[in-house]
Design a protein that fits this description.
About 40% of the residues lie in helices and about 25% in strands. It is an alpha/beta fold and about 325 residues long. It folds into two domains: about 10-235, P-loop containing nucleotide triphosphate hydrolases (Rossmann fold, 3-Layer(aba) Sandwich); about 255-315, Orthogonal Bundle (Arc Repressor Mutant, subunit A), CATH 1.10.10. The strands form three sheets. A nine-stranded mixed beta sheet has the order 6-5-7-8-3-9-10-11-12, with helices on both faces. The chain has a three-stranded antiparallel beta sheet with strand order 2-1-4, covered by helices on one side. A two-stranded antiparallel sheet has the order 13-14. Strand 13 and strand 14 form a beta hairpin. The chain is elongated and about 80 Å long. About 40% of the residues are buried.
C-alpha cells in the first residue's frame, strides 16, 4: 500500500529493491572489524538524503522521507574528526550541498554509558516534537550502550528498550555490532548479540574478501532473503575517495569464472584455430587434464561463448 505522500506504508529502508527495515522494528548490521560497517551506515544516511533520485551510489540502499521526519545518527565509536568525515561523505555521496534540518548526527564517544543510553531517548523525544516524527535512528554501535554485552539482564533490557522506542515513535532503529573474532557462523558479541538476532527483523551481514571487496547479505530477515552469493558488493575507490558499488557477488563470481575460462582457452589455442582432435590434445597438454575433462572444457566453452566453431570445423577463441 502506498502512503499519501509517496513511498510504501511502513517501509523505511530497502536494499536492492527489497524491504530491509520497517516501522516499529530493529535492524542489526554485523561484521568483523574493518569490513565496511561505517560505509554502510554512511550509505544509508545518503540514501535518505538522496530520496531515490537517480545517479548517486548508495551501495544498493534506498529510502524516501517525504514528510521530513528526523533522521538521527549516533556514533559511539569514532573521533570527532572521523564522525565529521562520515557525514561529509554521506552528503557528497548523495550529491547534496548542505544537510537538511531533519538530519541530526552526534558523536557520543566522550559520554558515559548511562548517558549515551539516555541520550537516545532524549534525542528521539526532541525530534518527535521538532520534526513531527522520527524517520529512523542509526546507532553505531550498540555495544557502547551497555557495560557488559555478556550480562544477559543488561543486554535483554537494552534491546527491549530500543525496540520499545521504535514502536513508540513508529520508526526503525538500526544498530551496528561486531562479530566475534574468527566466528564462521557470524556470532555477535555476547548475550547482546544473541538477543539482537532474535528481536531484529533483519540481521544484515558484511564480509570482506582478500581483495578488499565487501559483500552485503541477509539470510535471517523477516521481509527479504538475500543469500551471500547474490549480495551487493562494494570496495574502496581511491579516485572517488569513498566506497563504491562493484556489482553483486554473483556477477563478480561470474566475471571471475569467465576470466578463468578465457585464460584457459587462450592457453590451449595459442592464438590459432584447431580442429576438435587437436584442441582436445592441446587442452590436455596446456591444462594437464585427461581426455574426458578436456572434452568437457570444449562443451562448456562453446556454451559460454568462449570459443566458436567455424564452417570448416575448426575452433577459434571469441574476442572478449
Amino acid at each position: 500500500m502506498a502512503g499519501p505522500e509517496g513511498g510504501e506504508k511502513g517501509v523505511v529502508f530497502k536494499i536492492a529493491g527489497s524491504v530491509l527495515c520497517t516501522e516499529g522494528n530493529l535492524t542489526n548490521i554485523q561484521a568483523p572489524p574493518k569490513a565496511g560497517k561505517t560505509a554502510v551506515m554512511e550509505s544509508m544516511i545518503a540514501a535518505v538524503l538522496n530520496g531515490n533520485r537517480q545517479g548517486p551510489d548508495t551501495l544498493g540502499f534506498s529510502a524516501e522521507n517525504p514528510k521530513g521526519h528526523a533522521l538521527i545518527h549516533i556514533d559511539t565509536e569514532q573521533s570527532q574528526y572521523d564522525h565529521d568525515a562520515l557525514i561529509r561523505r554521506a552528503m557528497r555521496r548523495a550529491k547534496v550541498d548542505a544537510p537538511p534540518p531533519w538530519l541530526s548526527s552526534f558523536a557520543l564517544v566522550d559520554l558515559a554509558v548511562n548517558d549515551r543510553r539516555k541520550a537516545v531517548s532524549m534525542l528521539m523525544e526532541r525530534s518527535q516534537r521538532d520534526h513531527g516524527g522520527v524517520f529512523a535512528v542509526m546507532i553505531d554501535g550498540i555495544g557502547d550502550l551497555c557495560f557488559d554485552p555478556n550480562d544477559s539482564a543488561e543486554a535483554f533490557d537494552l534491546v527491549n528498550h530500543l525496540h520499545s522506542l521504535a514502536v513508540t515513535h513508529c520508526t526503525t532503529v538500526c544498530t551496528v555490532l561486531h562479530e566475534n573474532p574468527g566466528s564462521e557462523t557470524g556470532k555477535t558479541r555476547g548475550h547482546l548479540g544473541s538477543q539482537l538476532e532474535r528481536k531484529a527483523e533483519t540481521n544484515l551481514r558484511l564480509a570482506k574478501d582478500k581483495d578488499g571487496v565487501t559483500v552485503i547479505w541477509a539470510e535471517k530477515a523477516r521481509h527479504l532473503y538475500l543469500p551471500r552469493d547474490h549480495g551487493a558488493c562494494f570496495a574502496w575507490n581511491d579516485q572517488a575517495q569513498m566506497h563504491t558499488s562493484c556489482g553483486s557477488a554473483g556477477e563478480i563470481k561470474s566475471a571471475a569464472t569467465r576470466g578463468k575460462m578465457l585464460g584457459e582457452a587462450d592457453a590451449a589455442l595459442g592464438g590459432e584455430s584447431r580442429n576438435y582432435s587437436a584442441l582436445v590434445a592441446a587442452i590436455q597438454d596446456a591444462l594437464a587434464l585427461g581426455e574426458r575433462s578436456a572434452k568437457g572444457r570444449i562443451k562448456t566453452w562453446l556454451a559460454e561463448g568462449i570459443i566458436r566453431k567455424d564452417a570448416t570445423g575448426n575452433f577459434h577463441l571469441i574476442d572478449p
